[in-house]
Amino acid sequence: MQAKSIKPLSLQRLSLITVSVMLLMTGCGGGSSNSNNSNTTDTQAPTNVNLTEVVSNSDGDISAKWQLAKDDTTPAEQLVYQLHASTDPNFTPDPQTLIYTGNNSDSANVMDKLTGGKTYYIRLVVIDKDNKQTVSDAIPVSVQGGGSSSYQQPSLTISNQTSAKVNQTIDMALNGGNLTDVNKITWDYGDNSTLVTVTRTVAGSDGLVTTTSHSYAESGEVTITATFYNSNNDKLGTVSQKLTIAEDGGSGGDSTATGKLPATGMTKCADYPYNKEGRLITGHHNDNYLDCSLNYDADGDPVPAGQDGHVQAGQKMSYTLLKRNDEECVKDNVTGLIWEKKTDDDGLRDKDNTYTWYNPDPKTNGSDVDTNNGAGVQNGGNCKGSNCDTQAYIQALNNANYCGYSDWRMPSYGELNSIVDYGRINPAINPIFGDTKKSMYLSSSPHAKHNFYVWYVYFDSGRGYFRYEKYAEGKNAYYVRAVRSDQ
């Protein structure tokens, strides 16, 4: 029987105290950030933050609905929506209570996050680009389903990682977790084949087979899913992974990107207050935050057509926060790429770790093949958890099976540019990516002409450069955000 939804009676607003208020720089003609002077602008936290419905189905999953919020500085599609859950009705949302993050949506389905048989209190949090947030009143929901307290979800490992070929035998295995209370596993291979059910034979760790194999007769993308049930046939959880089946047994697709282009994030336009000599007209000023419907600004200066704010080319930026193995990573719903999310814990993925660029392969590092003089510098940064160069860091991420994956890599310059949000500044990136430095992040791309130079993106405003000092000299170390292809 489905739980009834309960409407909140009032709205509780919470405004975070920001360290500084930043002026956005958008459009053409430059601009500046005034984060450290007295010319600040008062902004409000999001309004119209109402969680309208939360229900639980018989499987123990919950679905929530809310009204789209409003904000005085942030476009609706850029607001970040979070759901938080706790058994304490008076809880304050924090990273430990987070169960969902998304953009530009008014509902969410949350699976396998809560324990069946318990009552949880759900709050909606809406965050704007100034990091101000509003928290809704809590709605109680009784979570149905078996929800064994000892069950812990395992990870799914596929022998061919993310791609295979037609008629190839593919091995699958469940690793880790706690399956003591699991009595049955149902495998769905994502094609038209019959579901495979494996039932426990005896109690204990050896009484349940957690491996299987399958082959596919046709090419295409499939999702392999394992579903777990207890002895009462209550669903405990699911784990799934995508797999691309290729005709020729190749990679199954482009390993770097999908070719889909996200929008720039710009929604405002700039004026052109200059004379024929390109000098600023006396008494006029540069305005980079104008409504794009204007033809002229208040000074009578033209607002040129064809700006990003006018065209709005590309698909709207959209991200999903993934949680696997108690770790978080971010999926770009436009390009399909999955990105590393930084932490603030003095560990392997800490936001403050820096690395020197190092790639010893002369075929990809831009070196002279005979001399390999552009490999970079090993262990020249300042970090924890690995040697402090890009190759060592990527190896450490893969050895740790971060977020359930072992195919992390350095992003190309184009991929790194794809997550720049030019509608934001300091940093120019969606908050879903977590702590991001207003500094340089290295790409895997060496400069085509200068073999001692490498491209990077400066995430203060999204500027892109090739490094002007020889990275082989090891004078500088910068930040890294790893990526993988979700094929």
Number of strands: 23
Helix content: under 10%
- Report mean pLDDT, rounded to a whole number: 76
Radius of gyration: 25 Å
How many separate domains?
3
Characterize the largest beta sheet: strand count, sense, and whether it forms a barrel. Answer: 5 strands, antiparallel
Structural class: mainly beta
End-to-end Cα distance, whole Å, is: 38 Å
The share of residues in extended strands comes to 25-35%
Overall morphology: globular
Q: Please tally the helical runs, counting DSSP H or I stretches of 4 or more residues.
A: 3
The ordered H/E elements are EEEEEEEEEEEEEEEEHEEEHHEEEE
Which regions contain 5 or more consecutive residues with pLDDT less than 50? 1-40, 248-259
Notable features of this structure?
about 475 residues; about 5% helix; 3 domains; Immunoglobulin-like; 3 helices; 23 strands; 5-stranded antiparallel beta sheet; disordered N terminus; mainly beta; 5-stranded mixed beta sheet
